Each structure stands twice: as structure tokens, then as C-alpha cells.
Amino acid sequence: MNMLDQLKALEQEALATLAAALDAASLEEWRVAVLGRKGTLTHALRGLGQLPRDERPAAGAEANRVKDRLEAAFTTRQETMQQAEIARALAAEAVDVTLPGRPPSLGRIHPSNAVLRRIYAIFGQMGFQVYDAPDVELDEVNFQLLNIPPDHPARDMQDTFYTKDPRVLLRTHTSPGQIRAMRDHAPAPLRVILPGKCFRYEQVTARSEFMFHQVEGLAVGKGITMADLKGTLQEFANQLYGAGRHLRFRCSYFPFVEPGVEVDMDCILCGGQGCRLCKYSGWLEISGAGMVHPVVLRNGGYDPEVYSGFAFGMGPERITMLKHRIDDIRYFFSNDVRFLEQF
Questions:
Q1: pLDDT tens digits for 287-303?
Q2: pTM over 0.70
Q3: What is the three-class DSSP state of 20?
């Protein structure tokens, strides 16, 4: 078989193989096998130099024609397959306009905000107003005016984030809002709650976060006693957790109150019988509280010989964990939709 016949046979076989290519992978295999550096057409073209001189012009012209024909056929086949793929994708993604529309998903109130709103409503019924205090605070207001001087050991438990100015920090509790609220109202009586975020530089665990919410409560006036504090917290517990709750008050120490107490409530799950939630004690801690220290009253602009007051603090995330039996506080700030959609 002479060279011309070989080129024609190569062309027919290559075109037949090209027509059988059904996807991009087989099309690429064809290109490499026929048009590639080691392909059959390339091999045939290299043999032109071995032909007799008088046969070379005709064989060269035929070789160029076959090459152009195969390259054009490859390009056409490639474009056809691409158009078919686009058509399949469009058909698969087509929108049936006769179908009913997809309803938009509605957002939900974050569980921390939901509990905060409930706390606002409960204390609002008891005559407390919401007082907003800044998240960025002065060391003087965050510690010193609350009876926590620079060398006080209580600061070790409230290590926080400082700015370049050592006098300015992210507040470690909402208690500095007591000073600001008292100075705004003194010497008139006041009842306020102080909600907001707090920041502490501590290890993040299932029970603690470096950022969390607190709600502080403060009442100042003439003749306010520990009985008023107990009655306020009892009513709060009944409203939030259900009527008939039992509270107990344990002596504790906080620099800005005297006396200070830890407030426990009978376990909402076992009714005080003991279970895993309450660590088999029958009680759940819900708040720290006490009578406002005379030094703090004086720093707030009130004469402690004339006025008295009580204060308490609680964590909305801890309250939510108790109500819904959540075992990890980190869920509240992880932005996991699976968690948030449960509320």
C-alpha cells in the first residue's frame, strides 16, 4: 500500500473512532492517539521524508489535507459535545414556573436575646428600667469605685482585655453600670437592670466563655432591706421558672455588697430530689446578690446613712442552659444553624 492509500485509510479510521467518542475523556484520548506527538498522523507525517523525490509533493499535499480535515473534525466534535453538555445542564436546572414558590426561611430570635427579653419583661412589671452601660470601661469604674482597689485579690478572678491605655479595658461584669446609674439618678431612688456583654480572659470550656451576657439589678432608696431583695428574686424565679419555686440564700463574698449571698433555686428537673442537672444536690445556683456596700453607695453619690440598696447579677446563657438542658455554653456563640433552629 502506497503512502496516499495509507493516509486515506488513516483518515477513515480516525473519523470513525472520533464519531464513537461520547465524552470529554474519550475525545481527549482520540486527540492524543491521532494528533499528539506520538499519534498515528504524526508518525505518518514523519515518514514523508523517506519517500522517493517524485512522490513527495502529492503525498505531502494529501497529508496536509488529512491533517486539516482531522483537526477540523476534532474541533467540530468538541464544540458539539460542549453544546450538548450545556443543554443538559440547562435542562436539569430548568425552573418549572407552574410550581408554587419556595417560601423564604424565617429567622429566629437568638436564645440569649429571647431570655433577655423575658428578663426585661419580668423586671419591668416590678418597676425596673433598663439602663445601658458601655462595654468599654475605665479601670476606675470597673474596679476601684466598686471597692476593688488595684491590689485586691478579686481582680485575679476577673482578668480581662486591656487596651493600649492601661486605664481602659473591656468590662469584666455589668457592675460598673451601678456607678453610672447611681450618678445619673442621685439622690433620687432608682430601680434599674443593667444588661450587656462582659469579657474575661479565661479558658473557654463547656461552662465558661471569654464573652458572655450578664444582667445586673440595682435598687436604691430609703429603707430598703434584705427582705426586699429576697422578695424580688422570689418573684423573678416564680415568673421565669414557674410558680412555687423555693430559694435559699447562702453567705458569700463580693467586694461591692455587704452582706453578700449566693442564691439557689430548687432544681427545675427533679424538684429538689437530686439529679444529674443539679449534681444530685437538689439546688441550682441562679444569682449572686447582696446589699450594696456603703463605699459603693457613696461613690455613686448616695449618703449610706440615709439610703440603702440591693444588687444582684445573673447570666442569661446559664439561665437558658437550665431551662433547655443545654450542656455547652459555646453553642450560643458558634453560629451553628442546627443549634439556633431549635429555638
A1: 999 999 999 999 999 99
A2: no
A3: helix
